[in-house]
Design a protein that fits this description.
alpha+beta; about 20% helix; four-stranded antiparallel sheet
């Protein structure tokens, strides 16, 4: 007696598609636009700010700089540490704010505020 086993074509194609999606999913998560070093100009109701962050040796840093706008309030910056906790928010001037955190591992994100009333932007 001979037993033939055939995979249904439709299910095989669906399984292959699902496998491909699962293989790509981690790539999508790891390329989040909100990551340390995602330096760029952002536009908010309070004007345009250049947000930047990075890690040098044992120190993570985040800087918010005014690019344009008429907000006269102070800018501020902080960091999301590798354990998820936020560092103390550093208030600067109406043109710049700079925050640092010393650690052997880099922070996850920079946090940036235009004026006090603006929403936070991650870098």
């Amino acid at each position: 007696m001979t037993v033939k086993f055939a995979w249904p074509t439709r299910k095989t194609a669906a399984a292959a598609g699902m496998t491909a999606m699962l293989a790509i999913a981690p790539l999508l998560v790891s390329t989040d636009a909100q990551a340390l070093g995602n330096n760029r100009t952002v536009e908010r109701s309070c004007g345009k700010n250049y947000v930047s962050s990075g890690f040098t040796g044992r120190q993570s840093w985040a800087q918010t700089k005014k690019s344009s706008g008429d907000c006269a309030g102070r800018l501020s910056a902080a960091l999301v540490r590798s354990d998820g906790a936020w560092t103390t928010r550093v208030y600067g001037t109406s043109s710049s704010a700079y925050a640092t955190h010393s650690s052997t591992s880099s922070a996850r994100n920079g946090l940036h505020w235009g004026c006090d009333a603006c929403n936070v932007t991650y870098s």
